[in-house]
Amino acid sequence: MSHPSPRSVADLFSAEGRLVAIPRRPARREALLAHLAETLFDLGRVYRETEVNEALKTVHEDYPALRRYLVVGGHLARTKDGAAYHRQRTAPVPGGAAPAVA
After folding, report:
1. pLDDT tens column, 31-83
2. Where is this region: Disordered (predicted)?
3. Which CATH class is domain 6-92?
């Protein structure tokens, strides 16, 4: 059984830089989400939901699913009202559990 590698993330994108499909396998999806968080969102910056949507639309049309996966996986944190997002500094919790917000 192969493990995700940086090359496997690149394989998920078309030549035009669009995501071909959101992986179903948790390990591959996790590798993709980490890549998207690092390449689309800056640490220390707060994003409005519309900005998150616009960034995710550049790679895939199902941006609501990607946004949800990023939040649930702990890559992005969101305010309770869903108006503001920011990239998490810590690695996601294994198993996709969302870290508690203080």
Report:
1. 999 999 999 999 999 999 999 999 999 999 999 999 999 999 999 999 999 89
2. 81-102
3. mainly alpha
Per the CB < 8 A criterion, the answer to whether 58 and 64 are in contact is no
Please state, in angstroms and rounded to a whole number, the distance separating the CA atoms of residues 5 and 16. Answer: 21
First to last CA, the chain: 38
Structural domain boundaries in the chain = 6-92
Amino acid identity at 15: A
Give the total residue count for the chain: 102
